[in-house]
Amino acid sequence: MLTVAPLCPAMERLGMLAACLLCWSCGVCLVSAIRRTDMYPYGPQSGDQVLAEGDDETSRVLPLSRPLTFYRTRFSQLYVATNGIISAQDLPMEKQYVDDGFPTDFPAVAPFLADIDTSGGRGQIYYRVTETPGVLNRVEVHQGFPDAKFTPTVAVVATWENVAAYEEQTRTTGPSSKVNTFQAVIGYDETDSYVIFLYPEGGLNFFGTRPKESYNVEIELPARVGFSRGEIPYLIFSRIEGPHYSVTSNEQSVKNLYQVGNTGIPGVWLFHTGNSYYFDNIVPASFSDNTFGTDNQEEEDDYLLTDGDPEFQTGPTGDHSASPDAPSSPSEEPSRQAVYDIGNVPLTSEPKYNSEPGERQYAPPNSPERAPVGGAQQQPQVTQNHSRFQQECSQNAFCSDYATGFCCHCRPGFYGNGRHCLPEGAPQRVSGKVNGTVTVGSTPVELNNIDLHAYIVVGDGRAYTAISEVPEPVGWALMPLAPIGELFGWLFALELPNSQAGFKITGAEFTRHAEAIFYPGNQRLSIVQTGHGIDNHNHLNVDTVVSGSVPFLPSGSEVTMDPFKEIYQYYPSVATSYSVREFSVVSAERGSESFSFQLKQNITYRDCRHDNRAGVPETLQITMERVFVMYVKEERILRYAITNKISPVGAEPTEPELVNPCYAGNHDCDTTAQCLPQQGQDFLCQCATGYRGDGRNCYDVDECAEGSSSCGAHAQCVNLPGSHSCQCQGGFEFGFDRRSCVDIDECSSSPCHISARCINALGSFQCQCEPGFYGDGFHCSQQEVRPKSQCEQHRDSLQGGREHGSRPSLAAFVPQCDSDGRYRPLQCHGSTGHCWCVDVRGQERAGTRTPPGTPPKDYEPERPKTHCEHHRDRVQTSSPEGYPVVGAYVPQCDAGGQYTPLQCHGSTGHCWCVDSRGQERTGTRTPPGAPPTDYEPERPKTHCEHHRDRVQTTSPEGYPIVGAYVPQCDDNGRYASLQCHGSTGHCWCVDSTGQERAGTRTPPGSPPKDCDRPVPVAPTEHPESVCERWRASLIEHYGGKPQPEQYVPQCEQDGQFSPVQCYGETTYCWCVDQDGREVPGTRSYDIVKPACLPSAAPPTVRPLPRPDVTPPPNADITLLYAQGQKIGALPLNGTRLDAARSKTLLTLHGSIVVGIAHDCKENHVYWTDLSARTINRASMAAGAEPEILINTNLVSPEGLAVDAKRRLMFWVDSNPDVIESANLDGSGRRTLFSTDLVNPRAIIVVSSTGTLYWTDWNREAPKIESASVDGQNRRVVVTDGVGLPNALTYDSSSGQVCWADAGTKRLECVSPDGSGRRVVHPSLNYPFSMVYYGNHFYYTDWRRDGVIAVSKESSQITDEYLPDQRSHLYGIAIATTHCLSGNLKIYKILPSRCHPASVAPRSLV
Prior knowledge:
Layout lengths: L6 H7 L35 E2 L11 E9 L2 E9 L3 E3 L20 E6 L2 E2 L6 E7 L2 H4 L17 E12 L13 E10 L3 E7 L9 E2 L11 E2 L1 E5 L2 E4 L3 E4 L2 E3 L4 H5 L12 E8 L7 E2 L12 E3 L17 E3 L32 E2 L6 E2 L8 E3 L5 E3 L16 E6 L2 E6 L3 E3 L4 E3 L4 E13 L2 E15 L4 E6 L4 H6 L5 H9 L2 E2 L7 H4 L2 E11 L4 E11 L5 E11 L7 E4 L2 E8 L2 E14 L3 E15 L13 E14 L4 E11 L13 H4 L8 E5 L5 E5 L3 E3 L4 E3 L2 H4 L8 E6 L2 E6 L3 E3 L6 E3 L12 E6 L2 E6 L4 E2 L4 E2 L8 H10 L26 E3 L6 E3 L29 H10 L25 E3 L6 E3 L29 H10 L25 E3 L6 E3 L36 H12 L22 E3 L6 E3 L45 E7 L2 E8 L2 E2 L5 E5 L5 E7 L4 E6 L4 E6 ...
Parallel strand pairs: 29-35, 32-41
Antiparallel strand pairs: 1-7, 2-3, 3-4, 4-5, 5-13, 6-8, 7-8, 8-9, 9-10, 10-17, 11-12, 13-16, 14-15, 17-18, 19-23, 20-24, 21-22, 25-26, 27-28, 29-30, 30-31, 31-41, 33-34, 33-39, 34-35, 36-38, 37-38, 37-40, 38-39, 40-41, 42-43, 44-45, 46-47, 48-49, 50-51, 52-53, 54-55, 56-57, 58-59, 60-61, ...
């Protein structure tokens, strides 16, 4: 960084220079000239524009955001020219000024006015207007102008890099190698302007240029450096020469530009160039001797906060002044002359900012806040050990001491600002409340403590936000306010190189102020979001307050917001941004409307700048690639889904193919894994800290169960996703390291009576009355009689009327005390007759109150809980639902409440001995499998074993009751999948919980069902629901035995979706709505499942919305995909997925769309419906309605193919295991194959050859077969090396059949005769369906819940599309405007018929 202030104080202040400081007697530092790295940042990476190459080029007009005062005139635009000059008006031809001296006829700022030529790539000229704090902070003028009251608001930076002098073409010598580099910076505010010229060391190699019309006379004119106002009006019609100022006069003065300066820094020149009230001529900076004296002080501000936070305090200072024996001039001791490397040293005293960035405050010269400079410079030093402040840091951070204070830094594997650190790569959750008043139109609506939840997939930057219980008028109106959820996207955005997501800067404590102003209407809404830290579950806690007004949006409106980019500017302790957003609203009442709003925001946070590390870039760009907003009226939920990436400004690559998948977000790493970019398109998946796996499948590590936690003595470990937390036992508190627990000295708070002494004990304390006093230590008296107890004082105060100084009320409740003064366990109200039980403090025990005339509750006095019982009960109710946290150690207590001498951890198997306080006895711990003395540890019994043992000991004698059913458990204690009743002979299949699977019971003597194979579900009292159909379909897909980590829908007894859905037996759970759609922002990896509310209303007799077709965007090629209850349309732009134009083609409530196909001749889409058991079609014209083609004798219709040439369709039914065909109108139905099929899934038809291909993922013998379309010539194409061949397509360019296998994870191709087999991609996730087009394969993926593109040539994943609503995608098909077949005859879609078209032949299936 660069300054115009003297270097010595600034460099010492930051501790970045050696101690060999040598100063002149006047106090001026002896330093070398500036280097190029000290110049203001320039180039395209800094947002600069580049001037065109040439000999006499002038930039386009450079508009200024605020007027610039030059001399006394205000200008609103500038121009940058090749010839080392900046002007406020368009420049004339160079021959009119370049060879002349000052003044010029036009306003000019000339850092090096000469005949410069950048033709042929000889140098570049950069320029920009900026308001970034990193630049403004460096335009510091107070050392040169001590009385200036100047705070720059705008800067103009122009840089001439390696530019050459003009040379005549006729000269015999070759082009000169001499080039110059220099820079001009104009900084200004509302009234003043200052200019800095910078000439780096080695930057000037020519000092003048030859006139173009020198007529071969060897003459060189020195460059002109200075300022000119230009001509100014005189009288009415005349103009006269305005004021001007020259810095150079001859060649030697030009050479001096980088050797000296007027700022004390060689090569740096500062000038006051304008004032709007009074200005005569340019004023150069002046640094007199006393400027560097001890009376002048330099700001020593590290952005201290006023809350006394030790992280931000400056320690005492020590004297590091220069030696008084220093020579009076450099020549006296040249060996001690210091030449400093100032490349990384900020050469400016940084301004102090308020929380509002618009109000910059600079400490004035000679302010008490400014530290002494020159010979009296002091260096801060630390007098306190940083371990005292370790508790200020996250438990996943370390504390570092610096000269001016301490800072926290996250440990490897974690990220944040040190005070708050989270596991790298792990998804993050946010929870909080929303409050405020929003006026919709003219109606104010209160938002009172409603819930906000957010879920962010850090690996690809997706942020989902949901706000519940939002009243309807506000719900519709707040849809455009995606900025509410954008905060979380900024905090955890996908980071491109050289960028940082917000959480690394702010941590979890911050305040965001945002204001949205809507147009038209001028409504204003304020948004204040406050981060309160991280809770015990590692969730960020953020509260939101909204207030103001928003435009009214009709009920049922749809809001669309296009992707956009926003630039964040970073100041110390504050980040700001400004943007204008446009959005469109479509409603039935008002049609389509366009709106916009202006958004201003700042985010303030605590900053630590003691470490002098590389700071945050001054500007970063957030790119929001997809913005999805929705209000669900029935559930009153407002949802935002945004995909976010953060990068340097302008740093995005122009070719998407060149983006590494880690930066594009289309990698296949687990959501709890980091994507590590490698060379080119390669990347590695690494499970996040606290997770274990191969990177594509990661599972939480239970540090508590494995004994790898960082918790110390007297601390309880609680596992969290990716981490763990330590909780102190009662009577203990955290020590400085936030991990070990130390005893609380309760006596320090004087809890005992004044006449008692307090005895502190480990985890507790005791009060004892002094000798001569009597009582319990809390109440002591000198009376030999027992002092009154709490109950007696309570009773007497009521009976004596002393409570509140009033008389006793006749109807008042008077407590009853026993002979020892304790509350009687049963209390009754003498007036009302109500009775209830109380505890030892007289507090009513819940559920014990009885009305008059009824017998009171039986009461058994409870003894006070012991330390062991408190410890045990606290662990057993650690979760929000009051259940024990899985994997947590639960102490074992005996009947008297004392710790049993032998303690064992139920999860880890470790055992150890403890003393009476529950503390482990050293040397007694034994590992799992090594039983302690006289003790044989047993595996905890499973549910099945408890069930079995309970039945087997049911009789009074402890024997099983004759004829009772005894469940059978396997070796691991789980229910055997086949259960049989030993007495009756009945057998049946059960699930993992031992519940009978409907339809599997067989009578005695008949063969039992194969429980490893799914069976048809018997009819229930209600029609089979969507959830039940989906569940049965997936169980069949998984071969009847889903793995613990596989998803099977969970259904309620009435068939509706359970509000909480989980992946198998894992803790990966989320909430769903009544249709089974995931509720964004509810995904959880916690042991405790998310708290989901049922959203399914009782069935009502009302029509669902009519399923009208919404035509896809106008595109030659569109991918159609099935996603549960809808069919989506995804256009292709070439071979790229055009996510911005994706839309829903057709919504089908209550359906499960699986197979999908397109008829290119009549432009119809066909699909199979697993829920309704139908095959359907619809025209892709606007407003078209679905048509049912076949609705009988279908059980599980899946794969579907259309032969547009023969007007036939083909499908597979995976329950009866048949392949059938019919005409496209549903007539002519026939069965092609019904034998030797086990689980047929995908089917395609190659119209050009009349061939069918299908997959059969029979787990014992999977295969791919083919036959002719009439059912003849059936044969096997592939049997070896296949597992679950889900997806199938045809590569018309090679004539090969290709499939994607969910078992082997490979994408392979083979010729129809079985030859030429090759692997296209070796490691897919979970493919379901696939198509081929344009040398690319496009498949739906159940792991990513999206559409993935794979290049056949590179075998790389090239693109990815993730719908905003996350759920499994099924079939995929291609809709085209032309029938693309393998022959030369190509059809173009016209209404109801096809016509040949002269289009180059292409093919696809």
